[in-house]
Amino acid sequence: MQLVVEDSDEGHMLVNFVLRNRMLLNMVLSQNINLLENSFAPLMHVPKCRLLLHFDVKRAYFKMRIKRMRQKSNRMSFSGNALRVNVSRDSVFEDSFNKLRYASADEMRRRLSVQFDGEEGMDAGGLTREWYTVLGREIFNANYCLFMPTVDSVTFQPNPNSWINPEHLDDFKFFGRVVGKAIYDGHLVDAHFTRSFYNHI
To answer: What's the pTM?
Structure first.
């Protein structure tokens, strides 16, 4: 399939067509999201067209792609081949950072198995959920200077003074990997950001 380039004549024609018919296109896609994988694929590849798709359509497409990635990863991985993370409760951020910072994309797609030092128990999902909760809180620790609360103290935004922390770029990258892993695994991270930050993501 030939991709449409946005700045080409075909790209301008496509954008104009989508602009005129966006309600109908969104209705069709909400009934059959698989169309974005083949005949309607240019709507995802041309940024101006993608902006005209409803959020629910884009979310359904994203979930479909994640599900397919998971299925492919499950077929390729063997049982017992989990991504193991051993952490101390006193240094969850540092231990997790050191374990995951060099993990490959394939390793990050594996099932996560968390063990807290000095605690017995097998991770049947509960320890992983707890790890996400504890790590989520730790990322907003003021000592790391990564995020700061807004005026309402409910949402967070990147701290403009994060450069004070010499590791801030590596820490932000690590946080992005954790959020990506949480989305991929279907876990919640207790992180509430400003709308402008979500728009940048």
So the answer is: 0.71
CA triple 123-82-182, angle to 5 deg: 75
Report residue 137: phi and psi, to 5°. -65, -40
Residue 11 to residue 8: CA distance in whole angstroms: 5
Which positions ≥6 away from 28 have C-beta within 8 Å? 35
- Cβ(86)–Cβ(115) below 8 Å: yes
Residue 10 — very low, low, confident or very high, per pLDDT cuts 50/70/90? confident
pLDDT per position as a tens digit, 49-80: 999 999 899 989 988 998 888 877 765 554 45
Pairing of strands 112-116, 83-87: parallel
Cα–Cα distance measured from residue 22 to residue 20, given in angstroms and rounded to the nearest whole number: 6
Q: Would you state the structure tokens that stand for residue 125, as one six-digit string?
A: 């999902």
- 116: enclosing H helix or E strand: strand 112-116
Asked whether the CA dihedral 33, 59, 111, 168 is positive or negative, the reply is: positive
